Amino acid sequence: MAAQKNGMGHNNLNNKYDLIVVGAGPAGLIAAGRAASQGARVLLVEKMKSAGRKLLITGKGRCNVSNDAYQSAFFKNIFPNGKYLKPAFGAFFSKDIVNLLTQEGVETTVERGGRIFPTSNSALEVLNALMSWVKKQRVELSCNSRVIELLVQQGQITGIITERNGQKEPLEAKGVVLCTGGKSYPATGSTGEGYLLAQQLGHSLVQTRPALVPLITSGSLAAQLQGLSLKNVSASLWINNKKVKDEFGEMLFAHYGLTGPIILTLSRQAVDGLLQKNKVKISIDLKPALDENKLDARLIRDLDANGKKQLENIFKGWLPSKLIPVFLEQLQLDGKKQGHQVTGKERRQIMLLMKNFEFEVTDNRGYSEAIITAGGINTSEIDGKTMQSKLVKNLYFAGEILDLDANTGGYNLQIAYSTAWLAANAFIKLNIENHTTK
Q: Which UniProt keywords apply (predicted)?
């Protein structure tokens, strides 16, 4: 290998590589490091001024590295077709990324729901470990470098053209892996440019849209509850008055609407419902442990036991204090009314609102707040056993650029590592091993 001593930087490039990896996020780092570890001369090109910027904000800066669930659980959490990833997960799975990080000095901890985090709770530690590993493999890294064209001759990749400080530069390569991400969090560099590069070569795009994204609701109800976090509640998604999905856990009210883990999980289908011009609602069950009859019996008991107390004070045993004035207003009840004055009809309305606290969804917060992009390069045009394009030889894809996205829980990052590792392996097998054995 004729790579630089330090393995990083962009000085004195001789413009000829075995493999060029575009995008230095999690997928790009894994693809570049893996290919270089197998003897390829690798250049990793990144348009931002440093690598892994989006990785730093994953898991609220803690980096949910992966999940220790079985593959079958991964498949259930990945859309539109988790099983497409069988070969990728077979090549590199959650235990493999944990082992790689352990080798680089990162301890990990398994938390609720199988989520794997660095014990330090630092995404920066994870990024530094991946960068250190990539450096050891003698990958060359070129930052502030935008890929403006993929070069193809006779249906085969021959290199790329980059633009750096206004200068265009052609670089030769036997293969290219596109790891440019989607459109979510564009401030970190993912602005969908990889889609255009692939489309120029004939690849088709499944409509992209924000996923794992906060939802905007009509009216001022959410704004009145801004900052209130609810735990152990159930939220259900209704499209055209039909319940399509529900989730149990934690959510949060914001000035614009609803967010938090269970809302983000429901958002994928909510966004699609809105795109199809359907009526979309979220219903919150504040007392999911009790059915209507049991909840009604509890209300009767509490109202009887506190007959002389004011209703607004009785409510404190039922709901967080921020919800009480909103409930009284919604139900048009006088908070000063005493418990024994509450009619059977009013009690039933209280019970029904606790079980079905409704919000009409009108929009989403867009790519700038979406954790992931749904849609992407159509996987029917990419060989799932190699991640190689079926249209252009030695063009590979990995990570969020693909039409694959998942629920929260570390699944999306694992898609990135696994597809990247598989792509690197396939490139090596086709281009390096065959040549070295001849």
A: FAD, Flavoprotein
For residue 121, give every residue at least 6 positions away whose Cβ sits within 8 Å of its Cβ, in sequence order, or none: 61, 62
Instruction: Give the structural domain span for 149.
Output: 16-209+374-437
- DSSP H or E stretch at residue 195: helix 193-200
- β-pair partners for 258: 215, 253
Q: Do 386 and 323 sit in the same domain of this protein?
A: no
Q: How many CA atoms lie within 13 A of 232 on its CB side?
A: 6
Residues 228 and 326 in one domain: yes
Q: Which residues of the chain have pLDDT under 50?
A: 1-12, 437-438
Tell me what pLDDT residue 15 has. 79
**Measured between alpha carbons, how far is residue 10 from residues 16, 173, 174, 260 in Å?**
13, 16, 19, 41
Alpha-carbon gap, residue 19 to 39, rounded angstroms? 11
Q: Is residue 10 part of a domain?
A: no
218 and 205 in a single domain? The answer is: no
**pLDDT for the residue numbered 198:** 98
- Rounded Cα–Cα distance for residues 148 and 160 (Å): 8
Amino acid at 275: L
Asked if residue 391 and residue 355 are part of one domain, the reply reads no
Q: What is the CATH number of the domain that holds 406?
A: 3.50.50.60
Contact 403, 381 (CB under 8 A): no
Q: Look at residue 404 and tell me if it is in a domain.
A: yes
pLDDT, residue 2, reads 33
User: What pLDDT does 6 receive?
Assistant: 35
pLDDT number for residue 437: 41
**The predicted structure's pLDDT at residue 169:** 95
Number of domains comprising the chain: 2
Cβ distance 262 to 274 under 8 Å?
A: no
Question: Which tokens hold the place of 381?
Answer: 């045009």
Q: How far is CA 1 from CA 30, 41, 421, in A?
A: 19, 6, 21
Who's near 427: CB < 8 A, 6+ residues apart?
A: 18, 19, 35, 40, 174, 175, 177, 388, 394, 396
- Which of 205, 202, 203, 193 has the alpha carbon at shortest distance from 147? 193
Contact 343, 316 (CB under 8 A): no
- Flag whether 5 is in a domain: no
Q: How far apart are CA 199 and CA 398, in angstroms?
A: 16
Over residues 413-431, the pLDDT tens digits come to 999 999 999 999 999 999 9
Residue with tokens 């969020």: 400
d(CA 230, CA 252): 6
